[in-house]
Amino acid sequence: MNREEALHKHISDMCAVEQHICDAVVRQRDDDRLKNNVEANQVVIEIERVLKNHLDALNDLAESYDQQVQSTAKEALGKVLGVAAGLYDRARGKHPLSRDMRDNYVALSLAAMAYTQFHTFGLAVGEDRIADLASEHLKEITPLLVEISKVLPDVTAGEITEDADFPTDGSIARQATANTQAAWAPSVTGGAGEGTVSPTSETEPSAATT
Q: Do residues 190 and 167 make contact, with C-beta atoms less than 8 angstroms apart?
């Protein structure tokens, strides 16, 4: 694979990922269940806005390299997205809103990892435009993941209370959110805080402790 082919492949793959997710989110916006949940609806509206902006920027990036991003065939899209390619193929309305939100989280997680690879590619081939754009877009996706994780317990608790024919407690949504958000605390994940992790980060064992 020569340089031009590599650029075309990585830019086209990134466009395919974002386009697939964006198309699915646009379809969700017509769902009355979503419209009736203010917080979830706001998150989906924001996802759509961010992804559309990303697609415009990716197309501009492609043009700057004299690349033409073409519609990706279904088979090729499956190779790019892997198992996530079938997430949105299910008929709408056949399952709870909570599953839509969960699938959005999975799809955006895939996009985040795709941007991690895209950024790495840009650095590896000395293309700062690619590396910088990928980093910027990744920083716009991670807050969306956080927002979904905060909204999902409330959506799930509401559905359980509505559907169950036995006593349930829908008021536990706030508790569920607090408990699950705590699982992402730096003290649990081992995060070293904000910024770029250097090769000499304190997260690596020192000679004195090995």
A: no
Q: Is residue 103 a part of any domain in this protein?
A: yes
Measured CA to CA, the distance from residue 100 to residue 59 in angstroms comes to: 27
The dihedral through the CA atoms of 176, 138, 135, 76 has a sign that is: positive
Max intra-chain CA distance, the chain: 63
Q: Assign residue 87 the CATH number of its domain.
A: 1.20.1260.10
Is the model more confident about 152 or about 8?
152
Contacts of 19-24 spanning 24+ positions with Cβ under 8 A: 19/55, 19/72, 20/77, 20/81, 20/85, 20/88, 20/107, 21/47, 21/51, 21/104, 21/107, 21/108, 21/111, 22/48, 22/51, 22/52, 22/55, 23/88, 24/87, 24/88, 24/103, 24/104, 24/107
Q: Which domain holds residue 30?
A: 3-158+169-182
Any domain includes 194: no
Q: Say if 82 falls within a structural domain.
A: yes
Instruction: Give the model confidence (pLDDT) of 47-84 as tens digits.
Output: 999 999 999 999 999 999 886 665 554 444 555 555 45
Please tell me whether the overall predicted TM-score, pTM, comes out greater than 0.90 for this model: no
Task: State how many domains the chain has.
Answer: 1
Alpha-carbon distances of 12 from 1, 120, 144, 169, rounded to whole Å: 15, 16, 23, 47
166 within 8 A of 144, measured Cβ to Cβ? no
Which amino acid appears at position 63 of this protein? E
Amino acid at 93: G
